[in-house]
Each structure stands twice: as structure tokens, then as C-alpha cells.
Amino acid sequence: MIEKTNRGISGSTLKIIAIVTMFIDHVGATIVQGELFNLTYDYATMEIIFNLGLAMRIIGRLAFPIFCFLLVEGFMHTKNIKKYALRLFIFAFISEIPFDFAFYKKFFAWQHQNVFFTLFIGLVVVSGINIVLKRFADKKPLCTLLAFVIAVAGMVLAELLKCDYAALGILVIVILYMFHSKKSTSALLVSIIFVAYCINPAISTYKQLVAYDIVNTNIYAFVFYMLSTITQAFACLGFIPIHFYNGEKGLSLKYFFYAFYPAHLLLLGIIVNYIM
């Protein structure tokens, strides 16, 4: 368990940071990159909009590891895991239409599901692993095998359903759970995973930019194209506020997030579909 202290920041403050950075990310994806960029034909303006959108997406990378951390914290402290899972499941479906409306401009899009589905699957996975760890504590080889199978099953399901962050998201949640009492270790492992996730795309993009001689002709564009390829690596920065978590719950913002998530997506959907 994480030791409580009066210093640092509470769980509610972490949640606010995650909500704000997520909102910035979604505005950057739907309005700035999705609409403003396509409405601009002047190269200089397009460059500014592209860079603004990129900066907003980078800021938004902080949100997911924080949400995953808070999910594990919630699992460790909840009195009723079934109700917790049911809330996530219900709001996953409630949020899906606004999510598709905002990002894909239609009410049903099967190519990408919202993050509530990822969090729900992650919660089910850590619940299963927790049961295994308790029931087979004296049989370590079997315990390890079953925990591994449960984790892989969750990752495969997240991939098949095309959830936000997919298998990567479930892996992050599992690591944060398994190393719950060791924040530095979990932060290091998850950071390595996020960086590793970006290596192949970064190499591919670098080769293309070199082939078109972008490195020598426009170093500014080269830097931003490379940054756009490795945005997921900036999720590591989410562990900075997590590091200062003091173990306190803080304000009760549970239902605020559940309401805010579909509401802000619906608002963005209205803006990109009917106003812009």
C-alpha cells in the first residue's frame, strides 16, 4: 500500500490534472488537427496549426498513465469491485456514441473504442490476477502462469475490440498493479514500454525524412515530424505528478469524471459537426 502523507497531491488533484490534459488532447485532435488544419491553405498558418495541435497532443499524453494509476488505486481501496466494474462498463457504452461523434463524425464507428473500455478490461484483468495471487499463493509457478494468461487474454481482447491504447493500455495497468507499492519501479517499467512502443515508428519516419532530405532542407519540420511520431513516449511525464501522490483521496470527484467524459465529447462532436 502507498503510505499516506500530508505532503504532495491528492487523488482528486491527480484526477483534475488527468481531466485537463485529456481535454487539451481531445481539443487538439478534433478541432485543431481535425478541423482547423484542413480549413487552412496558407503554408505558414498550416505549420502553426500543426505545431499547436502537436503540442496539445503531447500534453494530452500525461492523462492515460494517471487514469491507469487511479484505476489501480480505486481497485485497491474500493469496497465493491463489482459496482466499480459495472460503472466503467455502463459509461463505456454511454460514452461511445459521443466519442465516435467527436472523432469520426458518425454515431457508430467500430475502428476505435473509447478509453472506458480499456479501463474496464484492465480492472477485470487485475481483479482476476488478484484472485489468482490469493488462491495460489503457495504455488508460485501455477500462480505466475495463470496471472500471465489473464493479462495476455485482456491484452488480446483490448486489441480485438480496438480499445484506446489497446494491449499497451492493459499492460500498463497490470504493471501499475503488480508494482503498486513501488512507484519508482512501475514508473520506470511503463516509461520503457512507452519509449519502446515508439522506436519502430520513429525509425521508419526518420528514414522517410532522410530520403526526402528534410533533415538538411528544413530542420524545424524534421524535429516536429519526429515529435509527432513519438508522442506516446511523452506519457512518461504523467509519472511526475504521480510521484507526488500522497495517498489521500482528496475531493470526491468520482461522478464528475463519469459525467465529464461523455459530456465533453458530445460538446466537441457538436462543434466539429455543426459549427466548424
Question: How would you explain this protein's 3D organization?
Answer:
This protein is mostly helical. It has one domain. Helices cover 77% and strands 0% of the residues. The protein is built from twelve helices and no strands. α1 (11-39) packs antiparallel against α3, α3 packs across α7 and α5 (115-135) runs antiparallel to α6 (140-160). It starts with 10 loop residues before the first helix and ends with a helix. The mean pLDDT is 93.
Q: Any idea what the shape is? A: globular
Query: What assembly state would you assign to the polypeptide chains in this entry?
Result: single chain
What percent of residues adopt helix (DSSP H or I)?
A: over 70%
Intertermini distance: 48 Å
What Rg, in angstroms, do the CA atoms define?
Answer: 20 Å
Number of domains: 1
Helix/strand order: HHHHHHHHHHHH
Largest sheet: none
Q: Can you count the beta strands?
A: 0
Number of helices: 12
Strand and helix layout:
Layout: H1 11-39, H2 43-60, H3 63-77, H4 81-104, H5 115-135, H6 140-160, H7 166-178, H8 183-211, H9 214-217, H10 219-229, H11 239-243, H12 254-275
Compose a concise summary of this entry.
The protein has 276 residues and is mainly α. It has helices spanning 11-39, 43-60, 63-77, 81-104, 115-135, 140-160, 166-178, 183-211, 214-217, 219-229, 239-243, 254-275. The protein starts with 10 loop residues before the first helix and ends with a helix.
